Structure formats: structure tokens, C-alpha cells
Amino acid sequence: MKLSACIEWLFADASADFADRIRLAKAAGLDAVEFWFWSNKDLDAIEAALKETGMTLSGFVAEPMIALTDPANHAAFLAGLATSVRTAQRLGAKVLIAQAGDDLPGRSREEQHKALVDCLKAAADVLEGSGVRLGVEPLNTLIDHKGYYLSSTREALNIVDEVGRPEIGIVYDLYHSHVMGERIEDVLQQRVSRVIHAHVADHPGRNDPGLGEIDLGARLAWLYANGYSGSVGLEYQPKGSTAEALDRVRAALGVPA
């Protein structure tokens, strides 16, 4: 199991500099890093730190982050996606992350579902041959993302299946799925191959694995046993020092010390 540190939150206690956080992740024995937006980063410094440390960049958000549930946004998203792909290629990232956007008032679920399918089909054309894939991410609407359209992992998988292109998959966040009351073995049964990246955090609090109620180790073991081969993004808000808690986090995830 390869662990990828989301350096938006991890190692923020030790440095305000994202390039330094890459070095700290390397020193802590992690395998990769990831972040959210690329447009607000010093990409030259990020690139230099990745080369210096030999760390992999798992992925980042496809910009602009706008509602894909609204067809009026599709042209802007696709233009931005092309730039995000070039940035991913420059930095060696293989995954871009897309969020569906809000559940739009006055528009049916069916209309918005179709809008997502249409947008992702067009996105697949942009991605084709690039070596980069796009994962749409279901999020919980009970705590962190009220008003978001895509809270169901099953619907996200149905959308991916309708798109029917290898460039498109989902980002499966075990925390968001748990908050929505989903069981991993139910929602991903026979469709683990559509998962191109995974995220973890514990509940309640979205904090360090091992501090809450989710048996993340067992769920990750199921995920890998059923064909997942990607990395696991540590996208949680540390309660204290990132580095000092990593042994406990690894144990909670079932990763040998």
C-alpha cells in the first residue's frame, strides 16, 4: 500500500512552504504527495522538490473547480482541463480530481446526471493519450458539503459506466462514504476497477486515522483484495504533529511500520 500525503493539511504544522512539505513527507517515509489547486502553487519549487526527493505526485484538482452539473460551465471546464493536463504531465501526476458541483435548484436530478455524463465524455477526449486520468469525487452532504450534487458512490459509478471511457473513473473517499452510511463492500461490489484514487480520514472530525470510529484498515484491505492497486491519499486534518502521529496512522491503516 502506497501512502500519499495531502500536503494541504499534512505537515502544515511544520512548514508553510509546500515544497518543504514534500521534503518532510519524504523524510517521514511516505511514498507520494498530493494537493488541491495547482494554480496557487509555486510550480517551479514543487517540480524541484519532487526531483530532489524522488517523490511521486499522486494528483491534484482539475481546474477550474466549477459546477459540472451546469452545461453552461462545460466549455470553461474543458479548456481548463487541457491546461491541468499539461501541468500534470510536467509534474508527473497521473490523476486529476473533479468535483461534480452543487445540486442546482430548478433542475431535475436526471438533467444534472446527464450533464455530468456529457461533460465527462468530452473530458475523456481531452485526456485521451495523455497518460492522465480524471476521477469524479462523491462527497458527503451531511457535514462537509451540504448542497453538493454527487453524494452517492453508486451514482458516481453509474455515471462512469455511462461514460464508458478508461480515462474517467472515481475518487473513492472512505470518510465521505462512511458519513453517507455506505458499506464499501456494497457500493463497490464488482466495480472496484473504476476507482482510480482513494482518500482516507477518520470520523468524527475528519482527523487522523485511528482516532475515530471507522475501521479503515479493514476497508482498505477489502479494497486491495478486490483489485485496487493505486495509492491511498491521507486527506485528513491532523490533531497534532503530522510526523509524530504517522506510526499510529500506519497501524490504523494496516500498513507495517
From TrEMBL:
Alphabetic keyword roster = Isomerase, Pyruvate
Which superkingdom? Bacteria
Q: What is its EC number?
A: 5.3.1.22
Checking SUPFAM superfamilies in the record gives: Xylose isomerase-like (SSF51658)
- Looking at the record, the residues that make up the Xylose isomerase-like TIM barrel domain are 22-250
The record, for InterPro entries, names:
HyI-like (IPR026040), Sugar_Epim/Isomerase (IPR050417), Xyl_isomerase-like_sf (IPR036237), Xyl_isomerase-like_TIM-brl (IPR013022)
- Report the active site residues: 137, 235
Broad EC category? isomerase
Gene3D superfamilies recorded for this chain?
Divalent-metal-dependent TIM barrel enzymes
Family statement? Belongs to the hyi family.
Q: What is this protein called?
A: Hydroxypyruvate isomerase
